[in-house]
Amino acid sequence: MLETAETTYQLTRGVGLAAALVLVLMLERWKPHARLRPAWGTNLGLWFVGALVMAGVCGACGWVVAAWAAEHGLGLLAWIGAGPWTAIGVGLLGLDAVSYLWHRANHQLPFLWRFHQVHHADASFHVTTGLRFHPGELLLALPVRLGAVLLLGVPPEGVLLFELVFGVANLLEHGNFDFPRRLDPLAQRLIITPALHRAHHASDWRELDTNFGTVLSIWDRLGGTLHASDTGRSVVTGLPSWSRPEAPALAASLLLPFTSGGGRARPR
Ligand SMILES: [Zn+2]
């Protein structure tokens, strides 16, 4: 029974994210923000290695942990007797806030930055940048996400919904396209738009250390890290500490956490 639920969870998540990827690719083709040469091979290669590693470790861990916690009545939401919709809503907000804090920690702590810099090392800003994560970063994030699910007591349906919303937002905000010029500032009040996240990928430490949110922009507003940016700006993206003309390819990206000290010598 649980196995069927896990398969449905994996399928729903996979189909939802594939549909979002196709949508963003179409938007990029229709109205691109900038002319660029995406690092298809490196980005898709990193995604493939990361997906293999995560499937090997535990592909449906979020669902399994949430189902186990629900069965045993564990977590804050279970203890306060929250109804199913409240639990799902608070779960979505809570997991998005934890993701903001975790992303911020990835920029602040040199050990975490060693892995997260691989995501920023893409010289172009393209939907596949949203798939470009070092497997080490994915492994380090797993206990944080699972711990948050357990502590909050997010129901399994809430975890699935969050992973869908989070995954779609992640692909959308890495898109080489823009929301309509007048709509973008309004949207930024609520969510992270491609223009906001493009600033997060700037090849400048001051901008790169802003806009850490993935779904909602409220966490950056509360944390004092929101940096407004508009759709008309052309942003030079990539790693500030990378001095070579070519961005690291697949093998160099996999080795980057161990070959680069993390480039923490930032001008303040
Ligand atoms: Zn980042």
Secondary-structure map with pairings?
Elements: H1 2-30, H2 40-58, H3 61-71, H4 76-79, H5 84-108, H6 110-120, H7 135-152, H8 156-173, H9 183-188, H10 194-200, H11 205-208, H12 218-223, H13 250-259
The structure holds zinc ion (ZN).
What would you say this structure looks like, in words?
The protein has 268 residues and is mainly α. The longest helix has 29 residues, at 2-30. It has one domain (2-259). Helix 1 (2-30) packs parallel to helix 8, helix 3 runs antiparallel to helix 8 and helix 6 runs antiparallel to helix 13. Helices cover 63% and strands 0% of the residues. The protein contains 13 helices and no strands. The protein has helices spanning 2-30, 40-58, 61-71, 76-79, 84-108, 110-120, 135-152, 156-173, 183-188, 194-200, 205-208, 218-223, 250-259. Residues 103, 107, 116, 120, 200 line the site of zinc ion.
Keywords:
binds zinc ion; 268 residues; mainly alpha
